[in-house]
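[Q] Does anyone have a clean structure-token version of this?
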Amino acid sequence: MKILISNDDGYHAPGIVALYEALKDVADVEVVAPEQNNSAKSNALTLHAPLYVTPAANGFRYVNGTPADCVHIALTGLLGYRPDLVISGINNGANMGDDTIYSGTVGAAMEGYLFGIPAMAFSQVEKGWRELDAAAQKARELVLQMIRGSLLGLAPGAEPWLLNINIPNLPLEQLKPLKICRLGRRHSAERVITQASPRGETMYWIGGAGPAKDDAEGTDFHAALQGHVTVTPLKVDLTDHDHLRYWAQTAVRLADSRDGAP
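[A] Here you go.
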């Protein structure tokens, strides 16, 4: 069993170190992670600047790029083999609801998924690394369950899967069983923050995430608040399938209008 680990907090972050320590005796584990914090980089790839891979003192390798860069480089030549599983995390803070669109943690896992490899993104619900060892043990437990359930090592042509997992900052014995959830929704983000630079120019800082808009039962927000480990299967297809017919009909109307039809 071979596992590739990455993250968005950087190769030196406590979360990725704890995840590696929890999994290093489960499989052959390689870590390829960003040199610096790359939170909210989503699936961004670096296309107009060179990337370098550097060995770290702890045996990890780091890249001067994004989380997706790290996984992409690892899978397209750096490793020299195809891992059975790509894992991203453990992130310093939740990736729930709309956050998953922006998340570099999810972006790293999704890059593995796009290459046809099962992938998991792990995050702690609260920032600060409280009860990190418990989160790492829970991650280990879930990975072992996947191995025992023969959900890795997919046959050629088999569909990969992508799981987004959020773990409350609780002692291991207080964590409630995992729940399969849909993504919740947030309100719009808070207002942008402006400051004057030393040169008198206006600086803009992106505001904080808004509060939960949809945190009803069945969402990741609701389950995490109850102390459950939340698991949300994700997909990449952004097509609005429910409204394809509407837009097809609208396109016909627009074409008729352009041609001068009533």
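[Q] Thanks! Anything notable?
[A] The mean pLDDT is 91.
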